[in-house]
Amino acid sequence: MKRPVRAKERTLRALERFSTAMLSALGYLPAAGLVLAAGALLASAGLGTIFPALRWPPLALLGSLAYDGMMAIVQNLSVVFCVGIAAFLARREKHQAAIIALLSYLIFLTAGHTTLEQLGRLAAADPALGLYGTGQAVVLGVQTVDMGVTGGVLLGFLTGWVYNRTSGKKFRPAPLRIYGGVRWTFLCMAGAAAGLGLAACFVWPPIQRAVDGLTGWIAAAGEVGLFLYGFLERFLIPTGLHHLIYIPFQFSSIGGTLTVGDQVYTGAYAVLMAEYSMGLPFSDGIRWMYTGFTKTFGYFGIVAAFIFCARPEKRRRTAAILCPLLLTATLASVTEPLDFLFCFLSPVLWLAHGVIAGTFMVLLDLCGVTGFTSGLLSSLAMNLSAGAGRTGYPVLYLLAAAEIAVYFMVFTFLIRRFDLRTPGREAPVTTEAPAGQEGGFPFRALVAALGGRDNIVRVDNCLTRLRVWVLDPERLDEKALRSLAPDGLSCHGREVQLVFGFDAEQLRAQLDQLLEKNALST
């Protein structure tokens, strides 16, 4: 009976460590999202027509710099995950793990490129689409297999695992000593990264072909196919495979063609824009352009649910973090900063997200909506200019309100039903200090509950948790620790985790300073 319990505990511990490692790599996205949203507003052509001052060249340049600069982060989240996860998992000298992760990632990319080149499988870029839809992408200037963030996540965990097991390696022969420690870790990871890059060129393409093979069935399956199209376009985002779903419909003959004189327009996007500019009725192929609907409207419901389900004392801060990311999604159709806040941590929410997105694409089609859906400002301007008769935009915006409500209700129910730790639902920080305690947090009581200053080996943090390693777990006062972090304590052997929400980093920095000054001796 004990073995299953221990196995369950190990599984839960591994899942918890996985989720916190993923979150640690996303700590900068809210700030990046704020700058990205500001840049999108300043660079918006729609706003420029309403407020001519935004067309002032220096202001337009500032908007482009902000937007393009932050998009460089969004477009390279794979390397962010790789470096962030490896540094988080490293038990010592985290900067060394981060450097090795970055070097390994470069080797991984180059190994993939070299393999494709030697096999003659490098895809040629389309003049209009680039490498979209080919299953390959240019990452940090290197063309390789498009794995989305999956490659970076795998390599980040592998680097952290290898680093913890090899960075202490010492060689006795004097000539070999220089290759011990972190250099030995690098050598191990160089081989592993090259092997992973090589393997990706053989393992990932068959998966891509299987996904790509669905497009014919989706096109012929009516509303069921449209639902699957919308579901997969959202659900596959972490893997990068979603490009293989929407690209064939939006930019090839699968999505429809339009012949006007000698000019042939191919793909749902080209057909839609031609029909719009010529004043023609919109054809059925517009259904494949509904992918922008959830990006523009659905995330209002998601963010509202996160804020509503946050602890009362955390709502303002949660809103301040999420609202810039919401603006980025709804104005610029850049949803990744929000997506990665919950896709790995709450798979049930991610599954529901895909289902709702696919369902509303079907509803748009059944209701005969033929309007623009991508980007709140741009779609509004284009729908108004095309007219209600051609677009059916009154019904579109009614369905938008319905989708927001459905997302809010479904996410609120799931978050509360499964007690999901979405942003703002971390345990509150105790702010009242005991008598004689200076400052806002009782650090002296915390150190005492951890068994005293001499029992603390190392202090660290992730996005929401203070993590402490101790010498002797028997000296822990779990009752006192729970009073300091109610409903947010986790003890696994010598590792103690206390949930403090977004205050964890500041608390860790203050605790480090006090420990260095030896101001908390017990």
How would you state the average pLDDT, rounded?
A: 84
Could you list the spans in which at least 5 consecutive residues all have pLDDT below 50?
A: 428-439
Gap from first CA to last CA: 41 Å
Biggest sheet record: 4 strands, antiparallel
The total domain count is 3
Order of helices and strands: HHHHHHEEHHHHEEHHHHHHHHHEEHEEH
Bin the helical content. Answer: 55-70%
Radius of gyration: 26 Å
The chain-level structural class is: alpha+beta
Proportion in β-strands: 5-15%
What general outline do the C-alpha atoms trace?
Answer: globular
Major β-sheet strand ordering: 5-6-8-7
H/I helix tally = 21
Oligomer: single chain
Question: How many E strands?
Answer: 8
Explained architecture:
The structure is a single chain. The protein is of the alpha+beta class. The chain folds into 3 domains: 20-211, no CATH class; 231-417, no CATH class; 443-516, Gyrase A, domain 2. It contains 21 helices and 8 strands. It has helices at 2-24, 29-43, 45-50, 57-74, 77-89, 94-118, 150-166, 182-220, 222-235, 243-251, 268-278, 291-309, 315-332, 336-342, 347-366, 376-386, 388-391, 393-417, 443-449, 478-484, 504-516, and strands at 136-139, 142-145, 257-260, 263-266, 456-461, 465-470, 489-492, 495-499. The strands form 3 sheets. A 4-stranded antiparallel β-sheet has the order 5-6-8-7. It is globular and about 80 Å long. It starts with a helix and ends in a 6-residue tail after the last helix.
